[in-house]
Amino acid sequence: MGNAAMCREDRKHRPSGFSQCAPHEVRLAATEILRVAGFSGYHTSVIVDDREYFFDSKGMMAAPPLSSHAIGQDRFPKLQTEVIEIGRSSCSGKALVGALQPLFENGSYDIFLKNCNSFSDISLYYLTRTRLPGQYNRLERFVSATSPVSTGVLNKIFRVLMERKTGKPCVEDVYVRNPEAESYSAEGAIASLDGDASESDSQASDFEEHFAPRADSFSLVGWNGDVSESDSEASEPPSYSPFEAPPPRRSASLT
């Protein structure tokens, strides 16, 4: 069954998901980049050895460690990225790509229903049999559990931010659910991984990653946009304004 089957079998027999002797180091990177309605929003990614993996509106991405967290740090140095040691895995980053490609396809991203934190959660499960700590996806879980009320409230907040940014009335909803993400569930993704005996390494093509972040924008689980100027000196993480088209960037899309 190749490396994927070996990784899967190894995970099934590790109750804690941790192995001191496994060859690949696994870390979680998290940056708080939004506070809205009393909730914090985070961008997270998973680092395997010397490569970072994350999911955004362009699909699964790979880059040097912390590249996706560096965007906006020049303008907003108070944004702090935490790197958490998760453990070690017998699965490589290449195996991770092959296993998760069918679950996180390009075009299936949604800022609340299926975002970078969804990807980090399933990546940690695949690699170490652990899950994303709850504080990093609390906002998304709240939105999913209370929709459509919560999405209506958030759209009101987003419209106010957009009007403040552009000086023009905003009557349309800023956030609209992506129908390609509505059927996604973490439980379903985990069940798929546990039941899939395909060879992940054979599905993952060789790639060379180049990532060129721009300092004038940053990514909240895949949405790129400028931060409101009035928040630039705030003691809290700046409010996020997801109202602009993503700037051109060189990156490695794995889907």
In short:
By secondary structure, the chain is of the alpha+beta class. The protein has helices spanning 2-12, 67-70, 93-100, 116-128, 138-146, 149-166, 186-195, 200-203; strands at residues 24-36, 39-48, 51-56, 59-63, 81-89, 218-220, 223-225, 252-253. Helices cover 30% and strands 20% of the residues.
Determine the oligomeric state from the structure. Answer: single chain
User: What letter string, H or E per element, gives the SSE order?
Assistant: HEEEEHEHHHHHHEEE
Outline type = globular
The total strand number stands at: 8
Structural class: alpha+beta
CATH superfamily: PPPDE domains
List low-confidence stretches.
1-6, 11-17, 197-251
CATH class: Alpha Beta
Question: How many domain regions?
Answer: 1
Mean pLDDT: 75
Biggest beta sheet summary: 6 strands, antiparallel
Going across the biggest sheet, name each strand in turn. 5-1-2-3-4-8
CATH architecture: Alpha-Beta Complex
Domain PPPDE: 24-158
InterPro entries: PPPDE_dom, PPPDE_sf
Organism: Alexandrium monilatum
Region (Disordered): 222-255
Task: Summarize the helices and strands and which ones pair or pack.
Blueprint: H1 2-12, E1 24-36, E2 39-48, E3 51-56, E4 59-63, H2 67-70, E5 81-89, H3 93-100, H4 116-128, H5 138-146, H6 149-166, H7 186-195, H8 200-203, E6 218-220, E7 223-225, E8 252-253
Antiparallel strand pairs: 1-2, 1-5, 2-3, 3-4, 4-8, 6-7
Helix pairs in contact: 4-7
Write a structural description.
With 255 residues, the protein is an alpha+beta fold. It has one domain: Alpha-Beta Complex (endopeptidase fold (from Nostoc punctiforme)). Helix content is 30%, strand content 20%. It contains eight helices and eight strands, in the order H-E-E-E-E-H-E-H-H-H-H-H-H-E-E-E. The protein has helices at 2-12, 67-70, 93-100, 116-128, 138-146, 149-166, 186-195, 200-203, and strands at residues 24-36, 39-48, 51-56, 59-63, 81-89, 218-220, 223-225, 252-253. The strands form two sheets. It has a six-stranded antiparallel β-sheet. Strands 6-7 form a two-stranded antiparallel ribbon. Helix 4 runs parallel beside helix 7 (186-195). The protein is globular. Residues 1-6, 11-17 and 197-251 have low confidence and may be disordered. Belongs to the DeSI family. GO terms for molecular function: peptidase activity. This is PPPDE domain-containing protein. InterPro entries: PPPDE_dom, PPPDE_sf. Residues 222-255 are annotated as: Disordered.
